[in-house]
Design a protein that fits this description.
Largest sheet: 5 strands, mixed
Helix content: 25-40%
Structural class: alpha/beta
Number of helices: 13
Strand content: 15-25%
Distance between the termini: 53 Å
Length: 398
């Protein structure tokens, strides 16, 4: 059997000396399926492949699957349903391999009506790409679907309207493991894609997810946010007494980008709650905490310990550690007072670099913890930030 060529065979990105294959988005799948279904509806001719030019300018040739053509009483096709299979390339994409269906039918009213069916989520909170109540089909995929189906209508001389229903069987189950429940998208997946192309392990996509959640919280009235890098921070935040978590979100490794987005969206303050292993890097001005960008954990901990009064041997031992938890053990072995003073130094440096990034445009602070020792320290701004976070609870509409 001849291998199908999509047009992405020579498109890849290099990550760690490895070639990673690019793919195409759920939005591209939806638009291609809608185009194929519209063509079959208006011509009565089955098609096995359709071409789609993505917003990035790449021409895709996508296979059409699961074709179902239903004629009406007058012999014309009444409804056509078909699918295009999602290919996320080498990206760790939860939607890879799913069939994205488009069901297209005629309507008397002019224009293209686009909606979501099975497995496509619904927007339940303001601040997202679509209004509350709409199917979670973002603006770029909507425009792609509209453009492709309108072109089919033009070529066939059809002057009526079309209804396009996008569905992703199995989407509701998969969505439970994505950002969607946190964003207020219920019942399924989002149909996404600004370029039509999936870039493997795209940092841009991750930052866009952070932005989407922050926009939702801001639209709900959240001016002060609790931000954690990941699950450990979220779990620790949940154990803190007297801290409202209505406006809690995650930032992964993107501390600097999160601060920049907050400034852009008019957020007034952020309280970070982070494991020392992440934010020891921030104490050195490292605003993307992924290990591939920078490490320096032992060096920064040693420098803070030296400023706090550690002797040469303790500093050397810290420099020889492999984890921050191990470095904390070294500090504790030299006395609880040294450990506490070192954490004061770290928190002071964290606050300095948070302020340097924001230039005073928003209030910032941080609580640092250890998985073994619990809370290690906090910046001086924390009590006031907690007060403001708790005060806004009555105004939040989530």
């Amino acid at each position: 059997m001849k291998e199908h060529k999509t047009g992405l065979e020579d498109m890849y990105v290099l990550k760690g000396h490895k070639k990673l294959r690019c793919g195409y988005t759920t939005g591209s799948c939806a638009a291609a399926a809608a185009k194929a279904a519209a063509w079959m509806l208006l011509t009565g001719e089955a098609v096995e492949e359709t071409a789609l030019k993505t917003p990035k300018g790449i021409l895709l040739h996508l296979q059409v699957e699961e074709i179902a053509m239903r004629p009406g009483a007058d012999g014309q096709m009444e409804t056509v349903r078909c699918a295009v299979r999602k290919d996320g390339g080498d990206d760790p994409d939860a939607t890879h391999g799913l069939l994205v269906f488009a069901e297209v039918s005629r309507r008397k009213e002019q224009g293209i009506l686009i909606d979501g069916g099975e497995g496509v989520g619904r927007v339940t909170r303001p601040g997202l790409n679509q209004p509350v109540g709409n199917a979670a089909i973002n603006s770029t995929p909507r425009e792609m679907i509209r453009k492709e189906t309108e072109e089919v209508c033009r070529r066939q001389g059809y002057r009526g309207g079309l209804k396009v229903m996008i569905s992703i069987p199995g989407g509701e189950k998969i969505a439970a493991g994505t950002f969607n429940p946190r964003l207020g998208i219920r019942g399924g997946l989002s149909v996404l894609g600004t370029s039509g192309i999936v870039m493997p392990m795209s940092e841009e996509a991750l930052v866009k997810s952070i932005e989407a959640e922050m926009r939702m919280l801001a639209a709900a009235g959240g001016e002060y946010l609790v931000v954690t890098p990941g699950n450990y921070g979220e779990a620790f935040a949940g154990q803190l007494p007297d801290l409202d978590l209505s406006c809690e979100m995650k930032c992964s490794n993107y501390v600097g980008e999160t601060l920049d987005l907050a400034e852009e969206l008019g957020i007034r303050g952020i309280l970070f709650i982070a494991h020392i292993g992440k934010f020891i890097k921030v104490s050195g001005g490292i605003m993307n905490t992924h290990s591939r960008n920078a490490d320096a954990r032992a060096e920064l901990m040693a420098a803070a310990a030296f400023r706090a009064g550690a002797d040469r041997e303790t500093v050397r031992k810290i420099l020889d550690t492999g984890t921050t938890e191990e470095a904390l053990d070294v500090l504790a072995a030299s006395g609880q007072e040294l450990l506490e003073h070192t954490m004061e130094e770290v928190c002071g440096r964290v606050q300095f670099y948070l302020n340097q990034r924001t230039k005073g445009s928003l209030e910032t602070g941080a609580i640092l913890f250890s998985s073994v020792r619990g809370k290690l320290g906090e910046t001086g701004t924390v009590p006031e930030l907690i007060r403001r976070i708790n005060e806004q609870k009555a105004r939040i509409k989530i």
